[in-house]
Design a protein that fits this description.
single chain, 4-stranded antiparallel beta sheet
Length: 127
């Protein structure tokens, strides 16, 4: 089992930036992929960005391409989401997710391919 702890959410004005962090523990050595999903008020959880943990591709939702950037620090078992040019529609609870196991299961955009989840961190964007 992988445990995930997010941090970095908060209130920001439209056009501003925030950086989310997610630290993994437990069976972190078995992680195949890590990513971020978000759940806006009254809506379903949606994909934001994800990356292959050992290196390789990083995928972004069209709505955040060019504004959000996902980075990872393997030595710290931590993934970051740098969010720039934030818009009111980016407001949501952001969840970190991890996929672990013997082999990678795609696509990374699919929520059900991630078995470990953080508690979520609130991002509020004022207009």
């Amino acid at each position: 089992q992988v445990q995930l702890v997010e941090s970095g959410g908060g209130l920001v004005q439209a056009g501003g930036s925030l950086r989310l962090s997610c630290a993994a523990s437990g069976r972190a050595f078995s992680i195949n992929a890590m990513g971020w999903f978000r759940q806006p008020p009254g809506k379903e959880r949606e994909f934001v960005a994800a990356t292959i943990w050992s290196g390789g591709s990083t995928v972004y939702a069209d709505s955040v391409k060019g504004r959000f950037s996902l980075d990872r620090d393997i030595a710290k078992n931590t993934v970051y989401l740098q969010m720039n040019s934030l818009k009111p529609e980016d407001a949501a609870v952001y969840y970190c997710a991890a996929q672990d196991g013997s082999r990678f299961r795609g696509p990374m955009t699919r929520i059900t391919n991630f078995g470990s989840w953080g508690q979520g961190t609130q991002v509020t964007v004022s207009s």
